[in-house]
Specification:
- By secondary structure, this protein is mostly helical.
- Helix content is about 65%, strand content about 0%.
- It is built from 7 helices and no strands.
- The radius of gyration is 14 Å and the shape is globular.
- Keywords: Plasmid.
């Protein structure tokens, strides 16, 4: 993926998830567009878009960068969320923005490992993030 496009995509998804749409809304939006991402793949695509399959990078970028044209997106913007995966995504994107990709991946690894040990894990649907 073009480095400039990757940087813009990261900035756009971070902004989008911070003030415009929830992780759940993002999942539904992608499904409406015909993109069947499970939570792990969607989390990976948002956090590390440059690591996605080349044929998926353009599709993902188009959906994110041209989101203002989508009616569904406008219906779901600005909704408050306490969804744990959404909050985790924001935290990890923040770490990536401030400290870089490597630190973000380490933070996510540690968080998921701690969550696996919990009696009621919050991030069960993305526990396999590092398996793929």
């Amino acid at each position: 993926m073009n480095a400039l496009l990757s940087k813009q995509l990261h900035a756009e998804t971070y902004l989008m998830l911070n003030i415009e749409i929830t992780f759940t809304g993002l999942r539904q939006w992608f499904r409406m567009a015909g993109e069947q991402y499970d939570d792990v793949l969607l989390f990976q695509a948002v956090l590390l878009p440059e690591k996605a399959a080349p044929e998926k990078q353009a599709e993902f970028a188009q959906l994110v960068l041209f989101r203002h044209e989508d009616v569904f997106f406008h219906m779901h913007r600005g909704l408050p969320t306490d969804d744990p995966i959404h909050q985790l995504m924001l935290r990890i994107l923040n770490v990536r923005t401030l400290y870089g990709e490597e630190n973000a991946v380490i933070e996510l690894w540690e968080t998921l490992n701690r969550d696996r040990m919990e009696e009621q894990p919050k991030y069960r649907s993305i526990h396999e993030f590092f398996s793929s």
